[in-house]
Amino acid sequence: MSHHDPRTYIFHQNSNSFFKAAKSLVTITQVLDASCNAGFASCSALMASYAQSLKQDSNCGEDFNNQNPLVVQALNGLVSYDPMYQAGCLRSDSGSYCFADAITNVDNPPDSYIYFLPLGLSLPGNSRPTCNSCLQKSMAIFATAAGNASQPASTVYISTAHQIQVGCGPTFVNSTVQTVDSAGGAATLATNGLTTVAFIAFLVALSAWLL
After folding, report:
1. Category of 184 on φ-ψ map: left (φ > 0), alpha (ψ -120 to 50) or beta
2. pLDDT (mean) for 16-29
């Protein structure tokens, strides 16, 4: 998949090429430029369509019902496109991408962990992200997502907010989000142990088939 393909951003959780790019602020900024210049409305609709197709019995419905880890993670990536796009394209007070600053911050790696919250991945224990405007604005986006039970963020947002409040203060982020049920609830199976090669191969095959 090309870096100019809007699918690349949401599926970079397990991408070797992405983690190589993330070592360079210049390179990761170029990746984000390409991703953030994609038409949000059309891409959001496309991801929602992919998510529905994925769950159909004629595609991966049986595997989804059986909580197949590959299918669950793929679905989480698709349905969380909106908050991941919005947070990934946020700019810092200095004009740089918040995500680029976070993922290249070798002094405090937990700064980048917060951006995987939309996928239903909570902060590791004792993680303390930097208390800055990027964290605050990102968590505001994730709070909105967490209000929808179909979003993976709804399963981990409140616990993450409480963890951030320990280091940043009780009013730094909202920790009282009320989740509203909706059709197609979030897939909550922990999937961070999936292998990179298997997951990327699955996504490439899935994307080629759905297009």
Report:
1. left
2. 67
